[in-house]
Amino acid sequence: MKYTCVVLSVADIAAARRFYEDLFGLDVYQDYGINVSFTCGLALQQEFDWLIHLPKESIQKKPNNAELCFEEEDFDGFLKKLEAYPQTERLGGVIEHSWGQRVIRFYDLDGHIIEVGEDMKMTVNRFLASGMTMEEVSVKMDISLSDLAKLLNG
Fold this sequence. Notes:
It contains six helices and eight strands, in the order βαβββαβαβββααα. The protein is α/β, with parallel strands linked by helices. The longest helix has 12 residues, at 13-24.
């Protein structure tokens, strides 16, 4: 068995496709009109109720029970890009987790939670550039030195 993708229910396939292509830079793998899949393994489906044979009213918007997670090397640049989408509802502002990674969460056009976080390698490099040692970064991020080295070399 092999995992293939996540399928999100969307109201307007064209608008959702533009959102994911423009904001996240995703590349389309296949386009079947009401179904678009991206090379990363994400797919969008208009008329989701038809696809899975459930009543239209059973498809919920903003169920708040899952999120799509992205990491971005240029996190500050992404935040500027996100400003061009004032219609996106934010779940607060940028937060910094205890391990140091900065993230922002917001809803896509159809109410799915999106998390965009600073690339973990960039987080480590930010700490090192601030003068922290590898040992201090290891403690701060609660990650072993060997896993930290893998992160930096991977």
